[in-house]
């Protein structure tokens, strides 16, 4: 049984070395006149959990979305598992299947049940039988704690439950890396922790994760590295302990001062 | 007064009003299916990632939507049938009926396309992003995720198009189809004594056909609304 939990946890220690899983080199992007990504160089190793933080408008969501080409880039290269991101067509679709994505607004398929949301990709993209896909989906829904909601429509669930289903949907594709684009920003405060707990356990099981978030607690608990962005650039990056206690740049000091002191 | 009613009643013996309305209903039925199929393909083209496809779809819609239906039907009959001698059926009446269905379908497909496209706009962009993010290509995500939701959002404008189509079947008279408006012309010519009743009969007939369509679409748009 190819289980993310068992297969990934085995190579946690070994996995953080070797060829990077995601490698961005000299990436630039403009929205009109706005230079949203400036010369981004970023490597994420297998099994590593990278948290991207920064003020709004710093380009962190855009950075996350370029990795599965929901946003195109103007120049530079993005390699995933050693292969360059294809421009379009079947090759791009195949790559996206290997990159799990969790959105701020959940984006569960509104006309499909929770279970169908999770089985759709494995059946249509991976070609699994519906029985196989269903079994695996129930296992994942159980892991994120919403297996008793499987028959419901997304709109019948709370935000926190929806986001956990979205995580299960992404995991069902057995992705090499998971991208989280502000996964808790649209949630009511009391639901944030249930989603963060799911993410922390995923991180502990050795999943490679790139997480854009404002949750500093999550960064402290689960991140191997914190990447701080401002004005489209990566300003500094370090372990969470180092970054939060000894930020080097003025931008980071200013940012941390604003969010941690109240 | 009673003699007026007797005259009016004799109208139905002289002319087969119900048969004529039945032709309109048949025209509506087949043209609705045709325009729905063609309109869906056009809508797919208009939201496709391929620029030339979008251009073709937009070109079709803008040309056909801005051409009078009468011109399209007369062109089919005089241009395609009479000039190019293309027969769609060996039966004379059936031939014109089929041309009328094709003309109506071609014309209303442009409106169906725009109705579906407005439905696509009701689907949040995140749905398409999520579909792409799990590795679905353009056609699978359109078929499995976007269009099922778009069609539900398009029920009301599609209903309006269907109502317009139902009434526009009267233009098929221009393609020599003996439907109700062609029959009405004969009735006016031969029975000027009950001319008001003739108009009322045709008008009420259409109201009776169209009102259920409106009720049905209102009910369906509530019933199948996507809850978000």
From TrEMBL, chain A:
Protein name in UniProt: ABC-type polar-amino-acid transporter
Nuclease recorded as keyword: no
Comp. bias intervals (Low complexity): 1-18
Signal peptide range: none
Family listed: Belongs to the ABC transporter superfamily.
Protein localization: Cell membrane
Alphabetized Pfam families for the sequence: ABC_tran
UniProtKB/TrEMBL annotation, chain B:
CDD domains linked to this entry: TM_PBP2
Predominant cellular place of this UniProt entry's protein: membrane
Keywords: Amino-acid transport, Cell membrane, Membrane, Transmembrane, Transmembrane helix, Transport
SUPFAM superfamilies: MetI-like
Transmembrane segments: 20-45, 66-84, 96-116, 194-220
Subcellular compartments: Cell membrane
GO molecular function: transmembrane transporter activity
Membrane topology: Multi-pass membrane protein
Cellular component, GO annotation: ATP-binding cassette (ABC) transporter complex
Family statement: Belongs to the binding-protein-dependent transport system permease family. HisMQ subfamily.
Name assigned to this protein: Amino acid ABC transporter permease
